[in-house]
Amino acid sequence: MVRTSDDKKAFYLYNDYIDHVKLMSDEDAGKLFKAILEYENDLEVQELSGVAAMAFSFIKNQLDRDSSKYEEICKKNRANGMKGGRPRKNAEEQPNRTVVEENPENRTVLEQGTEEIQDKKPAKKANSYPKNFEEFWAVYPRKDEKGVAYAKYAARIKDGYSPEELLQAATAYADQCKRLKTEKQFTKQAKTFLSDKAPFADFLKSDIKQEPENDGYGEVDFSKLVEV
């Protein structure tokens, strides 16, 4: 059958064919070329002889191999067409492809091959607090829920207490906890110490005295009382 324009429109002629052609006369070389075109177009191939016939046998085998490869490619393309087109390669098979995606944390990640550029959003800064509160927090004996404690601290400042008074109260309470060796679970959290009921105010009173010490005989040593 003669190939039409819808069939393969070209075929390979390899450079090393010259090794055969240069041994032929121009007439035989012309006949060989004509025979190749006849074979590729499914026409009856003229009879060749001598070197031309031998060269054609080698070239014919290569033409058959190329034709088989071509047919395989056509089959794959037809199959892919029935499936909706050529399968897309994943990112791993395309190292030079740029992929932009959104991750669960709403961070944009740009991948170029195996390189990754982190999102442009700056890292969230840690909470910063006023210097007065930091001084209060430094001396307070229990470090829990700093953010809530600061909210209570700010509320007490708004109530009219000064930072110096709150620092004084925290220092006095810390000294008491140290003196009595109060365990952490029995130490007030700062948010409780600074609550609306103002338990801290007890440590601002001028008449606070240390507990009198016992001399070991069941009697109080009044000489060790501190006068305020």
User: Mean pLDDT, nearest integer?
Assistant: 77
Q: Which consecutive residue ranges, at least 5 long each, have pLDDT under 50?
A: 98-102, 108-117, 207-228
How large is the count of helical segments? 7
Number of domains: 2
Biggest sheet layout: 3 strands, antiparallel
The end-to-end span amounts to 123 Å
Order of helices and strands: HHHEEEHHHH
Structural class: mainly alpha
Protein name: DUF6291 domain-containing protein
Region (Disordered): 77-104
Domain DUF6291: 11-88
InterPro entries: DUF6291 (IPR046258)
Task: Summarize the model shown.
The protein has 228 residues and is mainly alpha-helical.
Annotate the secondary structure layout.
Blueprint lengths: L17 H4 L4 H15 L9 H33 L15 E5 L5 E5 L2 E3 L13 H9 L6 H14 L3 H18 L9 H4 L35
Antiparallel strand pairs: 1-2, 2-3
Helix pairs in contact: 2-3, 4-6
